[in-house]
Specification:
Length: 249
């Protein structure tokens, strides 16, 4: 029957009431049974909702028309003591974190931040893909999780800008983060360019008039390391430029 609330899969999380149930969320025409006290202990938003002069205070059923069923289940699992052992993953963090931010559940926000921190640390042994890097940067920037922002930016400056632009998440990352990422990369490139210029300046152009390179190379005279024949100076410049630019990610 159209409009009838679905109650299939009774064994699923929060799909059946128990003796602690005192609130029912209606999400995508499905019921989720939960406890107001647990919600109020974790979330100041829910606490105000259930204690202040809101209609939810006395109502047992609360419709959440703009929420997705799977997202709410994943979120409630992080609150309920029998399910809070559910690990944060790349899949559910995008379900959980927006709701934790909306309902101001700081404990869940911290768990999400810790998860991202672990992924940043693992980058040293198992480099993050461009998609995952920008996905985490999107999460920390959008939901104000600053602890690992710099770590993600440091990883990002070693990636090619053209590669990052190909990621499905590039256009979703807030402009404040992409701006800082690209500025850091520009600063790195300027630093490498300055090092190259400094290396080139140490060679005296007048020394290029030394005799042509000969077998055994006698261009260094009187143990003077700055005197090179034309062939050696060109080779030395190429060697130094290659050494500097090989450091550029």
């Amino acid at each position: 029957m159209a409009g009838k609330l679905e109650t299939e899969d009774p064994g699923g999380p929060f799909e059946t009431p128990d003796d602690t149930t005192d609130v029912i969320f209606i999400v995508e025409q499905k019921k989720l049974y939960f406890n107001k006290m647990l919600l109020g202990m974790c979330s100041p938003v829910f606490k105000r909702m259930f204690t202040a002069d809101f209609k939810e205070k006395s109502g047992k059923e609360i419709p959440l028309p703009e929420k997705k069923y799977g997202d709410m289940v994943a979120f409630l699992q992080q609150i309920h003591p029998l399910h809070c052992g559910e690990p944060i993953t790349d899949t559910n963090i995008s379900q959980i974190l927006p709701l934790a931010d909306e309902y101001d559940v700081d404990s869940i926000r911290k768990r999400c931040e810790q998860y991202i921190g672990v992924q940043v640390q693992l980058n040293a042994s198992s480099p993050l893909s461009d998609d995952r890097l920008l996905f985490y940067l999107l999460m920390v920037e959008k939901y104000k999780l600053p602890q690992h922002r710099q770590g993600l930016l440091q990883i990002g400056v070693k990636r090619k800008a053209t590669d990052l632009q190909q990621s499905q998440y590039f256009s979703l990352v807030p402009s404040t983060a992409t701006r800082d990422l690209l500025l850091k990369r520009c600063a790195n490139l300027e630093c490498f360019a300055d090092k190259t210029v400094q290396k080139l300046r140490k060679y005296n152009v007048q020394q290029l008039n030394e005799p042509d390179h000969q077998g055994g190379c006698v261009c260094r005279r009187f143990n003077d390391p700055e005197r090179f024949c034309r062939t050696c100076i060109v080779g030395k410049v190429i060697q130094d430029i290659t050494a500097v630019f090989s450091q550029i990610p």
